[in-house]
């Protein structure tokens, strides 16, 4: 059974604060993070600490919320699938992220992650979505490589400045971009019935986004997915 990696250090010792650029083990990263309860988001990427800046509404909060609405509706309609918002994910010894949104298959339903005794996600969620300011953001470089290497099956990056969404699927160890169909719908390979009207999402037309999703939920592929999941329950 996997146990907490929280260390048993001297409680009276002064714990240094996390600083962007620190190079730490995951164990030391967690020790310092736990000692900073007012810190909202910090990530360890390839052994380097990254501290989040305050987040703006239009360039992060709103698109983040729209992703939650879309993926949350899929979760509600798909027993055995779980949704997480900024949940800590322990990927490997050098990488501990807080992705904006994650969608995973519950371990009891055949998923590839495990919830640790201290309530963190361990392993690679099946799908992760990040909101990035632009194509220059770390989400499309180091984080993308880490997600690929650890086996995140699908990765969505919403580049707000460029008004663009990339959706990657893992094939033979590499990320391949998913293309939209003639109706501008992208369909998940890992979560059958998870359909996205990309243009509608970029315009903020959530009613149309949910209409396209409902078509996916009504599809035969989603019904078959529900049947497969039920066999694990």
TrEMBL record:
The keyword Hydrolase applies. One of its GO terms (molecular function) is endonuclease activity. CDD domains: DUF820-like. Residues 33-199 form the Putative restriction endonuclease domain. InterPro entries: Nuclease_put_TT1808 (IPR012296), Restrct_endonuc-II-like (IPR011335), Uma2 (IPR008538). The keyword Cell cycle does not apply. Residues 1-21 are annotated as: Disordered. Keywords: Endonuclease, Hydrolase, Nuclease. It comes from the Bacteria. Residues 1-11 have a biased composition (Polar residues). Gene3D superfamilies: tt1808, chain A. This is Uma2 family endonuclease. It comes from Mojavia pulchra JT2-VF2.
């Amino acid at each position: 059974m996997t146990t907490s990696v929280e260390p048993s250090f001297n409680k009276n010792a002064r714990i240094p604060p996390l600083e962007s650029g620190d190079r730490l083990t995951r164990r030391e990263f967690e020790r310092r993070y736990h000692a900073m309860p007012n810190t909202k988001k910090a990530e360890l990427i390839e052994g380097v600490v990254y501290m989040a800046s305050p987040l703006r509404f239009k360039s992060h909060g709103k698109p983040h919320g729209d992703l939650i609405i879309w993926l949350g509706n899929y979760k509600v309609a798909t027993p055995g699938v779980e949704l997480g918002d900024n949940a800590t994910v322990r990927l490997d010894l050098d990488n501990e992220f807080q992705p904006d949104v994650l969608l995973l298959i519950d371990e009891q339903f055949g998923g590839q992650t495990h919830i640790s005794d201290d309530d963190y996600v361990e392993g690679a969620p099946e799908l992760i979505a990040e909101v990035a300011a632009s194509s220059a953001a770390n989400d499309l470089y180091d984080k993308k490589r880490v997600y690929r290497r650890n086996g995140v099956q699908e990765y969505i990056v919403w580049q707000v400045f460029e008004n663009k969404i990339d959706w990657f699927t893992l094939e033979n160890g590499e990320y391949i971009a998913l293309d939209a169909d003639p109706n501008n719908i992208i369909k998940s390979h890992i979560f059958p019935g998870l359909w996205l009207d990309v243009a509608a999402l970029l315009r903020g037309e959530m009613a149309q986004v949910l209409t396209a999703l409902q078509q996916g939920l009504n599809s035969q592929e989603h019904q078959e997915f529900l049947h497969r999941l039920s066999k694990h329950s």
